[in-house]
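Milestone M4 deliverable, item 7.
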Amino acid sequence: MKLNCTISLLVTLVLVLCGTVHADEIADETEIEEIHVTIEPSFVKYTHVVSAVKMFSSPTDVLKPISSLAFDNSLGQIRSRGAEANHLGVQIDGYDIADPVSDFNFATISCTGIDLLHFSATPGSGSIGGVINLESISELHRSLNLAYGTAGNQSHFTYGIDKHNFSISRKNWEGIDILDDGDLDGIEHVVGHYHFAGSKWQSTIRYATITQGYDRGRAEIEQGLVGVNGELLDRLTVRLSTSLNRATWFESFNNNTTGTRTKLSLSSPVWNWFTLELDQVYDINESVVRGEPTRKPIGVNYLRAKYEQTHQKLSWNASLTRIDSTQDEPILSKSMQVAWLAQGLSAVESQLTIYLEFDHQTIAFPSMIDRYGWGQKWLPNPDVKPERGTGISFGAKYSTTASTIQATRFTTRLRDKISFGRNLSENVDYGRNRGFELLWKQSWNRQISTNFAYSRINSEARAGVDQPYQQTERRPKDILAGTVSYAAASITSNLTFRWVDEAIDACWRGCVTLDAYLVVDGVISYRWNDVIETSFEVFNLLDETYYQVHRYNTPGRQFSLGVSLLLGNR
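Output delivered:
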């Protein structure tokens, strides 16, 4: 009975709050300002359009329609296809910004200055769990966005002139009492973002200060990024960046950490089908281990040879990478992709792509916490080895001008998987993540479109060759996500839902099962004229009580009202 009522309510909401269409289809009528999800898979890659006017705009909110991603607690961890949080690479404009000290905290990053969000799910992107890349705004426009709601408030200003874009924002999310102990799990962002988009050279500068309340304390966090890339002599591509992630903890069991990453990348074609690349990475990690400040510099270089060719309907590429760390033995990583493309099958503008990708020895290095400990309880273990992943993905995608259907089967096996046991990090024998993904995107007409995604994931690990595989904690097996969208001359609306199956958690004294849950978000925007647009957003429309981690509450129903002032496009 409860399920029937829920389905009836969802059907009613779909009829009232329909969701996303392609911006190019309505560009002559209006511009969608809230987050507008458009999944454009190329093999197993996805692209989402982002806008900072949305009250809850953060990478975790934008990524909800991707069913292969699972979200953890207020730390903002994201796991791809059942992998660990540290297996996911994080970049802005292709520059590394991930925390080299520990797992990256997605709650501390905002979408300020970001226009597109790309997600590549396969190890061939450079990380075992894939890579998320946030791309800067390049279109010149000027706007002021203000939003206020039951969860807090935010203001955002964007100014574009010539080839320069500036974005400044402040967001204050009051949060909730996740442990029922009186501490609010809130967060406040103050972010400045600058991007220069020249014809041959581009650069990005970003700085953010974040105050995060968590568990029994709070943290003050700094994030910084300076990056530049371009071409020399029309043959040598240069990319240089430095990023900072510093956390100062108060009234908490955690300790202060600082991680900086400096990266130089060089790429040059040798022939039309052969390219050489060199990545030189230098990390400086600082933390407090058993009351003593610890500072560890780590250098890693990646020497890569890439081969790519196309013949008629068949294309293939391969890469060979030597990974040499100052702390580990050299490792040889391999990647290969093959695709067959046929056009004009059942429709004139249709195409079918059948693809295969294989990756071997993709590396996830131990974090500083894994190797050198953290605080009083996480003890050092300098003998921890890097994790090595081998993955294979194959599938097919059929697309027309109005629809796209894609199915992907994937398997990733981990060797020397890092696990936390006996107060320290240690390597276990094997881990494996298997499953499949289904995607369906449909544009019904110029106003209505839908996107649906389903993932079936089985994540397991074992401690030794003679030990059985056990299901990994906090890994739901089934995730169903989707959006329904509507756009007209003055009104745009978006309904997003995400259903997550039950998962096991807290297996220290017998496992606890986290119940399945359904979360629905909706937003309606109305453009009054060429200058003013208002938006009304509902987060967790059904007021669902759910847990992504045992004992950690998640927000109930929340509302926000936003106003956008377009100050003149250039």
